[in-house]
Each structure stands twice: as structure tokens, then as C-alpha cells.
């Protein structure tokens, strides 16, 4: 691919307005853990303050935001390459999806990678509890990799393990002053859209605007995801994520 396609000028010329909700799935928060270690609300508050003092500083432009929105921009060095964030002292990325079902698929896939790395770990007998949260955002500086000219290079944007083209693109987007990359999910069997928010400045509300409670149950048959409100069930069988060679070679019997 010619590098001319992602020069700052070329990227800015492809920019478009984009707004809406960005969904991501998170695990239960630390307040549950500190409650177990304290006897009163005062003790719990003091413990949480002590823990907070050990964490990296919140970036100045994110300080007005609630915990769930600023956290992806807070921590560095980043431990490994992800699709649009480099390992090391790289700027934060708020990864999310346009639909909660896509965010659930992403979470199910990444939990399977955990079990893949621990082949002796049995499948949990009980489902895990998760929360899908939606953040509201708006920008005039987004690019959409599902549209021309980017669509022609689809295989690079959705490669299951090689993120090099995506990382180079993200570097170019930051130089061009772009805020969001809209791209096809490599994990959602329905190929719906993901969002990579490159800055916390584009959130239009300081806290999440919607929540859904999900339970994910893992077994040798695959993954079942259940949402109580609105009522919804999703099933990912053994082949749902098999495009990724790591999952394709996974032993499901444990």
C-alpha cells in the first residue's frame, strides 16, 4: 500500500463528521473488592483514596470525565500492541463498538484468549458478570475504513493478528489531528463496526449514558451471552472466532 494514502493531508481530506454511542464491555469495578476489605463506608473511602494515589495521573483533558471514560487514556506504558495502540508510552485509545452485541463479541473473544493461554484452567461453572456501557461522542474529524478509499485495503484492517498497517494508520491519524477511526470488527461474526476514539476530548457527556448487564458462560460448546434488559441471547460456537489461528487451534475440552 502506498504511504501517500495516509499522509496528514490525505487523511484530513478523508475526514467526516461522526457522532453517536460507543459501546464497550467492562468487568465489575473495584468498589466491590474494597467493600470486602473494609467494615464501614469511611474505611472503604479511605482505602480507595490510598489505592488512587498509587495510580498514574489522569490526563488533564480527561479530568472532568467519569472513571469509565478516562481510564483507557490513563495507563502507560501499554503492555502490548493492540490494533490502533502501540506497545510502550503510546497515547491512549478508547476502544468500543457501535452496537452492544459487537462489544460482547469482542469481550468473548478476548476472554477466550485468556483461557487459551491457560490450557489447564477448567471452564467456570458459573457465568461471568459484565456490564456493557455506552459513551456519547461527536467529532468532525473521523475516518471510516469501511468506505472508499480505505475499503480496498480491508484485509489489512481486519487481519486477526498483524496490526502493523493499523498502527501506522493510527500514527498518521494523530499527526493529522483526527479523533476517531471507524472500522469493521475482526471478531464480530456479523462484521459490524468498531470505533477507536483517539482522544477523550470528543465525549459529549461526562459519564456513560447507557448500561446493560450481561452474563457470559464459557464451555466446550462455545460461549453463551445473556442480557436481561433488554432480553437478548447470543451464542458463539467453536467456529465463531476460528478466523483467528489462535482460536482455530484451541482445545475446547478441559
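^ C-alpha cells above, recovered residues below v
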Amino acid at each position: 500500500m502506498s504511504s501517500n494514502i495516509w499522509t496528514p493531508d490525505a487523511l484530513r481530506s478523508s475526514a467526516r463528521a461522526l457522532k453517536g454511542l460507543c459501546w464497550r464491555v467492562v468487568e465489575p469495578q473495584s468498589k466491590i473488592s474494597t467493600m470486602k476489605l473494609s467494615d464501614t463506608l469511611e474505611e472503604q473511602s479511605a482505602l480507595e483514596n490510598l489505592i488512587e494515589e498509587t495510580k498514574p495521573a489522569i490526563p488533564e483533558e480527561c479530568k472532568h470525565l467519569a472513571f469509565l471514560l478516562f481510564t483507557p487514556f490513563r495507563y502507560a506504558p501499554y503492555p502490548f500492541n493492540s490494533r490502533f495502540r502501540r506497545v510502550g508510552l503510546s497515547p491512549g485509545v478508547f476502544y468500543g463498538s457501535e452496537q452492544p452485541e459487537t462489544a460482547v463479541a469482542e469481550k468473548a473473544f478476548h476472554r477466550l484468549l485468556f483461557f487459551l493461554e491457560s490450557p489447564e484452567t477448567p471452564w467456570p461453572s458459573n457465568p461471568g458478570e459484565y456490564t456493557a456501557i455506552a459513551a456519547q461522542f461527536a467529532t468532525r474529524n473521523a475516518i471510516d475504513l469501511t468506505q472508499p478509499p480505505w475499503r480496498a485495503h480491508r484485509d489489512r484492517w481486519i487481519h486477526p493478528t498483524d496490526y502493523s498497517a493499523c498502527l501506522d494508520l493510527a500514527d498518521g491519524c494523530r499527526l493529522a489531528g483526527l479523533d476517531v477511526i471507524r472500522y469493521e470488527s475482526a471478531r464480530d461474526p456479523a462484521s459490524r463496526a468498531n470505533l477507536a476514539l483517539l482522544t477523550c476530548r470528543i465525549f459529549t457527556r461526562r459519564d456513560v449514558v447507557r448500561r446493560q448487564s450481561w452474563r457470559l458462560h464459557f464451555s466446550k460448546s462455545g460461549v453463551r451471552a445473556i442480557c436481561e434488559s433488554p432480553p437478548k441471547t447470543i451464542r458463539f460456537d467453536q467456529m465463531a472466532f476460528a478466523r483467528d489461528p489462535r482460536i482455530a487451534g484451541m482445545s475446547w475440552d478441559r
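The helical segments are 8-13, 31-36, 41-53, 67-70, 100-117, 154-157, 164-175, 245-248.
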